[in-house]
Fold this sequence. Notes:
By secondary structure, this protein is of the alpha/beta class. Helices cover 34% and strands 23% of the residues. The chain contains 15 helices and 17 strands. Strands 1, 2, 3, 4, 5, 14, 15, 16 and 17 form a 9-stranded mixed sheet that branches.
Amino acid sequence: xxxxxxxxxxxxxxxxxxxxxxxxxxxxxxxxxxxxxxxxxxxxxxxxxxxxxxxxxxxxxxxxxxxxxxxxxxxxxxxxxxxxxxxxxxxxxxxxxxxxxxxxxxxxxxxxxxxxxxxxxxxxxxxxxxxxxxxxxxxxxxxxxxxxxxxxxxxxxxxxxxxxxxxxxxxxxxxxxxxxxxxxxxxxxxxxxxxxxxxxxxxxxxxxxxxxxxxxxxxxxxxxxxxxxxxxxxxxxxxxxxxxxxxxxxxxxxxxxxxxxxxxxxxxxxxxxxxxxxxxxxxxxxxxxxxxxxxxxxxxxxxxxxxxxxxxxxxxxxxxxxxxxxxxxxxxxxxxxxxxxxxxxxxxxxxxxxxxxxxxxxxxxxxxxxxxxxxxxxxxxxxxxxxxxxxxxxxxxxxxxxxxxxxxxxxxxxxxxxxxx
Length: 421
């Protein structure tokens, strides 16, 4: 059967190895890399890939063809941890950060997450939609074809629901696939600071069941951190989420080694996020229980810290590692996943192959999408990025610029010459 579209003469084609599970440990540094390659696309799916001359059986008079000589092609990039939908911005805190005020101190003073909560509450649905759509366009231009979007800037039902409905509408309207996570447990509301149990009761007895009942999210996440939610509080919230058929994630050990990584392993979390302060025991338990480590080097960079998550130790301990932007208005206001990939190499010493596996096949598995995207298997979605670069090494070596030339989502050209079309 002939293809609808064939991309051919591809200079370098990066093909993650898909064994129906994320790549762990040494396997993260493996991939099939083809030269003078082609990809055939039929009905939005990968029909065939190979090297050399395109088989005549794939070509008809109706087949469109694009010559990608000298260019590098990878699967669509997966940004599996963002706070996409929010109101306002927090540049007013920038000078505080420059003067050494800590993230937790800014939060304690009513800034940080709580500042964005106020801005999100007062934003209309349309205002949130327009702002988030602009960010999605920027992500797409930089090669992101699937993104996770957390709520968590409401801390009460009306605003949390508004965020989740904006994400749902964007998923319907925008080329980028948006995967929703409920994160009502992002902070404790100011008025309940002395009575967190009341908020936990609201989360577990009302909000989480409502999210599940109306299919507003696939995942539930909790900020397990000193001064936010304790390990025991996090356990109770995530237990409720699992009972309501939500998959679970944990903001774990971002600033303090609290035991979040150990809890992620105990509860069978899909992924644990951040992990800059994760203990050796936590890393070992995550590996044994197949929890994906979702690392966010842009946050460390933005907070002007040196404590990057120890990606090398994690990989050496047989963990599966994903990389994400953590796009949010406070601790990491960037939509550029290529910058995050470059930090993954330059700051965390990950090899180019490890980095690209982290934002393709492992990113896909961290969102439960490994069966449909993240690699070039026949039958998977034709989510494809074309880089104006000779090889994957160049994309990480030449940092701080956008290397994307074209992006395809489900076989449709959605970015051309760095513009959404």
